[in-house]
Amino acid sequence: MTRTSSAAALLFAAATVTPGAQRTTDSVTAFTNVTVVDVRTGQLAPSSSIVVRGNRIVAVDASTRMKLPDGATVVDGRGAHVIPGLWDMHVHTFNNSQSAGTNNHAVAFALQMANGVTGVRDMWTDLDDIRLARDWRKETDAGHMVSPRLLATSPILDGNPPSWANSVGLASAVQAREVVDSLVAAGVEELKVYTRLTPDVYLAITERAKVHGIPVVGHPPASMRFTAVVEAGQKSIEHLMGIPGQCSSAPADARQDAEGHDRQRLLIETYDPKRCAELFDLFIRKGTWVVPTVALHRNRLLGFEPTWEQRPGTDYVPAVERAAWTAAHKQAVQRVNEDKRRGPHRRAQLAFMLRLIGSMDRAGVKLLAGTDLGNPFMIAGFSLHEELALFVEAGMTPLNALRTATVNPARYMDAVDRLGAVEAGKLADFVLLADNPLTDIHNTTRIRAVVTNGHHLDRAALDALLASTRR
Questions:
Q1: Pairwise CA distance, residues 309 & 184, whole Å
Q2: Where are the alpha helices (DSSP H) in 303-419?
Q3: pTM confidence score
Q4: Which of 385, 412, 439 marks a domain boundary?
Q5: 216 near 236, Cβ under 8 Å?
């Protein structure tokens, strides 16, 4: 799909916003008789009303006390539980690993909206992408476009040669400082680092980033001690990278010499809770966020099982992707049939990852929900709900799982003044659910309506959006 212009983006918006979902800066909508879920405390406020003017929540109170504004459009939400809009904190809206200048927004945005995902963090945003994202943001803020809020990072900063085409290979600390300065001047919001960076180049990036007050996020370089990356102040660690090794009692040379399944088996067998606890304490002291993307790991480890075509959302996967996923599935099945040990070992790996996530949650490590959308078997919006369900499987409470996609992203972005809660003064991004997600995390999929930037998308509008995406 080629890069779309702002005009094309507006056509997308026109297709996704039904007449009933249009709003103006003065429009007022009142959602009555709902139960508001406070994801910070876990408290429920039943029989409440929420008043939205333009794109802001202006009042939240008990329905019996609430005097609705004259002329307000009233939506009876009887039986609904209201949560803040969800965030997917690791997506790839742009196809930079394949061909710069292309993106998936026409499908991804629609599916994210239909799943209550009102914000995303894009993890590979080149300079043209950033300009396009700015256009989307302006149109969204003005109420002319319905799309998730998008936090843009940067092009991938990697060693030379880089792991991926279209990323930036850095050969020296001097070059790294110059590139960081130019990216900040161009408006990047975070700097994404990658595995092939050398220590001197990586530290030049982090030091220069501190001068500009911009976060460094991404993959820890393979050439560095993992704790050195955390000490350097990297704000987020993606995919649990480096954590299993740091939690292992095996000598460093043994961990480095082992490869593939042998290395994973070694890490599982030498798991040391004390070493893990020390690492988690370091995360907490340094304010490090972890984005496990465990649904991605689950799909890579167990993608050979004949389940992906029956999972929610597969109807909306474009034909070209479905064909590629089917081919990948067949290859995985063939590998497993050739080596019967792979299946049990891969399940053990997934169980180990879930164990790490549960341990981090209990220790108080700051976690974010992210899917790494753009990889095989990851479906916009739908996969975020799978991520939350896997967090609960890992031992998290439904409330803590829900926090990773609501209030935690707001805290991560220093945006608690406008995001992460359903209360007066916040942006009108929230989701009406048919039942309580604190009793069953799967209730996050039972969506009755989505309010995004003040636009009310009822169930009929969401169904129409899904139908148009399927076509």
A1: 42
A2: 319-338, 342-363, 382-393, 398-403, 407-412
A3: 0.94
A4: 412
A5: no
